[in-house]
């Protein structure tokens, strides 16, 4: 099914109202574009992934400021580019610090609602088989899945444990669930 500009506009409106399904749609639809852009720039999968996660966290925080005169993908790529430039400047200055303000936690939050289809898939799988699938994920995705579903931590607890901003944790967990669901679907 081809996604129309009207559908994207509709999803953006839903996201501005805090609908979790809209955030998931936008993440799924634009992930490859932003990740591919960063991979070409930084030539490092892990760093490109981190920047992409941070891009979506920042974009979802500031979704109300998005001006629909522009395309959403251009806005995301611009955010991504600015994050990458900031990181490069900080590396060059030999200062390593988190590029997301702690105050971002007080900005609009992504809702933590009822279980998604991915959540149901995760719970319904045989535990031993599920652990094998989880081991196929990259370590930082394994970690958030473990903290959320096996240690039953809240988003805030995971954020504190990983010493990462709350919205970065939410986006990483969303991405981890999507990747895990894809792995499970492919293997079945």
Automatic annotation (TrEMBL):
One of its GO terms (biological process) is DNA-templated transcription initiation. Residues 29-92 form the RNA polymerase sigma-70 region domain. Residues 128-180 form the RNA polymerase sigma factor 70 region 4 type domain. Belongs to the sigma-70 factor family. ECF subfamily. GO terms for molecular function: DNA binding; sigma factor activity. It comes from the Bacteria. This is Sigma-70 family RNA polymerase sigma factor. Pfam families: Sigma70_r2 (PF04542), Sigma70_r4_2 (PF08281). Keywords: Sigma factor, Transcription, Transcription regulation. InterPro entries: RNA_pol_sigma-70-like, RNA_pol_sigma-70_dom, RNA_pol_sigma70_r2, RNA_pol_sigma70_r4_t2, RNA_pol_sigma_r2, RNA_pol_sigma_r3/r4-like, WH-like_DNA-bd_sf.
């Amino acid at each position: 099914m081809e996604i129309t500009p009207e559908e994207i506009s509709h999803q953006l409106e839903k996201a501005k109202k805090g609908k979790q399904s809209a955030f998931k749609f936008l993440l799924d639809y634009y992930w490859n574009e932003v990740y591919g852009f960063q991979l070409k720039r930084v030539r490092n999968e892990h760093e490109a992934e981190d920047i992409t996660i941070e891009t979506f966290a920042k974009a979802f925080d500031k979704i109300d400021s998005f001006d629909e005169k522009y395309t959403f993908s251009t806005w995301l790529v611009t955010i991504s580019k600015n994050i990458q430039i900031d990181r490069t400047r900080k590396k060059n200055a030999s200062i390593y610090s988190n590029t997301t303000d702690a105050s971002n936690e007080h900005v609009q939050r992504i809702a933590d609602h009822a279980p998604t289809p991915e959540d149901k898939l995760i719970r319904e799988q045989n535990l031993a088989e599920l652990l094998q699938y989880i081991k196929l994920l990259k370590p930082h995705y394994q970690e958030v899945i473990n903290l959320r579903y096996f240690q039953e931590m809240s988003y805030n607890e995971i954020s504190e444990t990983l010493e990462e901003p709350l919205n970065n944790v939410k986006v990483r967990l969303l991405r981890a669930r999507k990747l895990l669901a894809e792995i499970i679907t492919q293997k079945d």
